[in-house]
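Supplementary notes for students who missed Thursday's class. We covered one full example, reproduced here. Read the sequence, then the structure, then the short commentary at the end.
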Amino acid sequence: MRHLLALRELSPQEITDLLDLAELSAVAGRGEQLSGTTLATLFYEPSTRTEISFELAARKLGAGVVRCDVDRSSVQKGESLVDTVRTLAGLGADAIAIRHPSAGAAHLAAAHVRCAVINAGDGMHEHPTQGLLDLLTVRRAKGRIAGLRIAVVGDVRHSRVARSAAWGFSKLGGSVVAVGPATLLPTPGDGLPLHLTTSLRVGLEGADVVMVLRMQRERQAGGDVPTLAEYTRGWGVNSQVLRAARPDAILMHPGPANLGIELTADAAYGPQSRIAAQVAAGVDVRMAVLAWALGRERLLRPSLARRRDRRKTFVANGLLEFDQSRTQTPLAEPASTIRND
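Structure (token representation):
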């Protein structure tokens, strides 16, 4: 049993292993690797992509899923976070995916239960599975992380996504620059491994990846930006703005996007966008994280081998057309051939 609480706490090799495991998960497909286990989701904040992808990932691997509806739970009667996670663990949860508005909530939960705890976003601290799916999306598009320039544009100060991105990309050899108004940038004293600039043109120059962040008005103090219209004029990203980046740059956004504010529809749905690919990568990553956290990651490799054997049988019997291109990458082992140097 292992916790996933922050990318800052993982080594570059551990991050790479999880990305490789996510690739195995994508190819292996449905199975029973987590049969007999139960995932509990505990979300104190709204979520579409993260919560549903955790549920889909668990079900694809044969796990049971229990959603704790916070608005209808004993939390409304004053139950503490510690008592809630202890109750879920006592009821038989093998893993808890938790989202909470307070930084450090996942660490607190992990200190009080024996089951695996996976941080699905805690305040302004980190969102490690989002960081992993962002890394996976970029690696699939570019074939590497090392040597890439990643521009993170927008409300970086309040973003747990930006913090996980900074740690994840830098640990694998990428260079991260945060771009936005000074009031929405972290301070140098935060210790994040990134560069800072208030110039959108400077930040995007030479960027291989442009990651746009949502304006988190629920976390901002009054006066962080005079008006949303002024923010859009200075730091909004559209197809024209993207021309400042490299010609083959890709566009990303963790969602949900406030179209017309930090990002325009022409860019979000344009040819450089990988936003839909990020959503799809979320299921692969969370399958990998669940298998890893519950100590069953090795079971993904035999299932992949069985799937290949079944495919060969179908081919031999003339029931399936043989696709030579799918045999050219040795996916039975972690994708160590994908270099990050």
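Commentary. Strands lie at 38-43, 64-68, 95-100, 116-122, 149-153, 175-179, 195-197, 209-212, 250-252. Residues 33 and 172 are 29 Å apart (CA to CA). If anything here is unclear, bring it to office hours.
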